[in-house]
């Protein structure tokens, strides 16, 4: 057990079984409460994943909608202000970066939660999450398991590249056709 695991174990353990209740019922009651707390903790970890998915859906919708609206405006309006498109793209860049940071934050929170889950499992008869993590090589072998975060965190950068590309396109086009309009 490494130093961090020992610290988690120390923080995790509240009352040892021998102190938990009277001597005749201590083990059964302790184990029942341990199992209930484990189930509750797993449900909380699952809710974090749900919130992560909802956040990703929100940012994906906002960015897709903005790019779609800019494209729609370009092809349906008689004139679209170059400044408007550039400002919209500039405003979208911090939104994308916030999305990226949120993905990393959720990854870190999930990692911490599953370190705690692994510690709780040491007190239970079976350790399914610990065994699963071992089966996928601890996340170190991409042929066995590629963490979703590795794919997920690229998406905001793709949108940032699209916004930067659109700004460069608008600047280039504006220099060749005039300051206020993008040709249709």
**Rg, nearest Å:** 25 Å
- Percentage of residues in helical conformation: over 70%
What characteristic shape results from the CA principal axes?
Answer: elongated
Give the strand content: under 5%
Describe the structure.
The chain is mainly alpha-helical and 184 residues long. The protein has seven helices and no strands. α1 (3-12) crosses α4 (82-121), α3 packs antiparallel against α4 (82-121) and α4 (82-121) runs antiparallel to α7 (154-177). The chain is elongated.
Layout of helices and strands, plus pairs?
Elements: H1 3-12, H2 17-20, H3 26-76, H4 82-121, H5 128-135, H6 148-152, H7 154-177
Helix pairs in contact: 1-4, 3-4, 4-7
What would a concise description of this structure say?
The chain is mainly alpha-helical.
Looking at this protein, list some descriptive labels.
mainly alpha; 184 residues; disordered C terminus
